[in-house]
Amino acid sequence: MALGKLPDSGGDEYESDDGSIFAEINITPLTDVFLVMLIIFMVVSAAALQREKDKLERVAEEMESSESAGLKINLPSGAAQEIDPGAISLVVTIPPEGAIVVNDQQIADENQLDNIFRSAFTRDKDTQVVIKADAGVHHGRVVGVMEKAKRVGLTRLAIATSGG
């Protein structure tokens, strides 16, 4: 803190008749402290944001690699692959009106679909199931058919799409 004399209204600016003293606060050290604190907070907040970002990325990776609804989901990163035409296949067609068709035969109920999957698995464990679902079919029905095939042991599942 600096000490000085108050200037009077007349006469010399630096002299005072009554000798009154005024105090002047030097704010330079205070400003330095605030700037240092600002820098510290900026560094700490950047580190905290990076830690949260890393945590969110780890959670997203765990969700992608975890099993969802009994099916392991590996999202494709490239173009679609052709299915093996020489392998034994079951073609399951799911039209929007509801009747499931397997290899051009209409299925009466869901238990019959389980029996078809079981018999195909006992004949050949590498049987591939090609699901041809209409675009208007609910996602849950397609997933239900896939879960039935997987429950029996059929792991080679494919979803047919229209070309182009």
Description:
Strand 6 and strand 7 form a beta hairpin. The N and C termini lie far apart (81 Å). With 164 residues, the protein is of the alpha/beta class. It folds into two domains: 2-6 and 16-65; 86-159, Nucleotidyltransferase, domain 5 (2-Layer Sandwich). The strands form three sheets. The protein has a five-stranded mixed sheet with strand order 7-6-5-8-9, covered by helices on one side. The protein has a two-stranded antiparallel ribbon with strand order 1-2. A two-stranded antiparallel sheet has the order 3-4. The chain has three helices and nine strands, in the order E-E-H-E-E-E-E-E-H-E-H-E. Helix 2 packs across helix 3 (139-152). The longest helix is centred in the first third of the chain and has 38 residues, at 28-65. The chain is rod-shaped and about 115 Å long.
